[in-house]
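User: Okay, second chain of the day. Same drill as before: sequence in, structure tokens out.
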Amino acid sequence: MARTAVVRWTAWIAGVLVLGLLASWIWWRESDTGARWRFDKAMETYCGGVLAHEKSPLFEGLWPGLELRNDRTVGRDAHACLLGDHRREVTVALLRGEELGSQDMEEILPPFGGSRLPMPLTGGWRGVADGHSVRVLVGCQGSDDVVSVTIDSYISRTSDVQEARQEEESGWLEEDVYWARFATATAVKAATHWGCTTEGGKPLRALPPVTTEEPTTGADGTCAGLPFGRDQRLDTVEETTAGDRGLYEMCKVGASHYFDARYVFAAHFGPYALRARGGDSTYDTHEQAGTHDGTLWASARCPGDSERALFSGYVPPEAATVWLPGEKGRETFGLPAFREFAERSAARHGCTDLRLPTARTR
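Assistant: Same drill. Structure tokens below.
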């Protein structure tokens, strides 16, 4: 009788243990806390363990249900991965000043892919966003090293998304700001991971209003101050906001009643200057300034950057050939405007030793 009681008692205990283990497993699989624990554990090594997935003063944290895909290394201290169902491609890298020339910039710094001009981030951050891409750099104190974070979106450009962006007063969706915050927080976390002392910016709450094409008289950003009076055909500009923290600036000037192509002036800073030079054989020269077949370039030394900033310009061929009947002239705007653009941009960024083209010699 006693033996039967022991067997029953043992069976009861075993049943309770099984139920307890089952309940624990269900909790682990189904509860929000369990999901967060599993996600945090995976993020310790995913993408080098440098992504800012946790909640912090800079970022509200990634959601635990986010899919983690295609984790890979793209160089020394450089990681790339996909967050979500092929939605966001993230690349995080430590760019050492003395090794920039030997690193694969095409892989580490993907090209911009948005349909709008890249606008500088606010809050003291060195970076830009264009609705498709976010780029952030933070410098390492006491060296020329920088930490780079790039995020590119592969969300389908549906009409609903486009309309939502257009309806927003600022031209941005909340998800644009969300991923910009994630980029800034990841830059700071990655810097700490690699033993880099850096000063980040303030929590990012908004992005600068998106600019649209407007009359030349309204130029108040990177197109401001250009000598539009030299050519009466010029009537429109599209420009990025002027500031001292952007990695990439652009000014486009059009003559809509005469030709479709536009003058394009751009500025590239830090490793983005190196990438721009590598992507265009025109700049593959020992000359720090020059002109060639409608392309102009200049360079300057900027604080905190091991690579000289690159200023580039494009003069449309039609500007020298397309005139209204009875009119004729010559192209007089391109070179003076480019020089003015580069001078103003270099001054904003505190750059020195600006080298400018003097004339079209080739």
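The two ends are 109 Å apart (CA to CA).

User: Thanks, on to the next one.
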